Amino acid sequence: MTGNEDAISSQSALGLGYRNLRNRTAEQSGNALIWQEGKLCMRIMAADKSAEPDIPLPYAREDSRLEQRAAIQVKMARGDASLAWPAAFHLMLPILPHQRSATYAAVARSNLHITGHLWLPAPTEKAVHLHIDTTLIAKQGSPEETQIVSVLNREMAAIAALWVADHER
């Protein structure tokens, strides 16, 4: 680690990334945190807000509607038609039994680059949108791609659990 994780807000992408490391080593590179998970080199950073469409996401799970999530996936797919979506935009499973807040995820692939998108709504502020990405050398739809999507989903679920724990106190 870089030693400056104490100076980073625990709510920021890097702050959540540091808290998710669970004794793994990492390196900070600009506004990104890079670590190794198995044989994968993973990177987390906040999404560029100027490049993304404004997506209204409800904070409460009971306010999230399937039609809304489908419309968001269509909007994202139209935004960059070259992307494949091994995991479409979805409401993540509850992390805690009493969880009321919603967390959302999707996984996109562009050639040899695969990105997990994680949206973390808050009750009083705009949703935080994080990217967790890695590279892969595997055919689309292959078991290797499925395994990497699974790793991304586990990392996103762990980060979402930290977020939920912070916002449902």
Largest sheet: 7 strands, antiparallel
Average residue pLDDT: 82
Please write the string of helix (H) and strand (E) elements: HEEEHEEEEH
| Class based on secondary structure composition and strand pairing | alpha+beta
Alpha plus pi helix count: 3
Helix percent reads 25-40%
Instruction: Measure the end-to-end span.
Output: 28 Å
Total number of distinct structural domains? 1
What percent of residues are in strands?
A: 25-35%
What is the 3D shape?
globular
Describe this structure in words.
This protein has 169 residues and is α+β, with helices and mostly antiparallel strands. It is globular. The protein has one domain (44-167). Helix 1 crosses helix 3. The chain starts with 12 loop residues before the first helix and ends with a helix. 28% of the residues lie in helices and 28% in strands. The model is unreliable at 1-10 (pLDDT under 50). It has a 7-stranded antiparallel sheet with strand order 1-2-3-7-6-5-4, sandwiched between helices.
Summarize the structure.
By secondary structure, the chain is α+β, with helices and mostly antiparallel strands. It has helices spanning 13-20, 66-79, 143-167, and strands at residues 26-29, 32-37, 40-46, 84-91, 104-110, 113-120, 128-135.
Task: Give the SSE map.
Blueprint: H1 13-20, E1 26-29, E2 32-37, E3 40-46, H2 66-79, E4 84-91, E5 104-110, E6 113-120, E7 128-135, H3 143-167
Antiparallel strand pairs: 1-2, 2-3, 3-7, 4-5, 5-6, 6-7
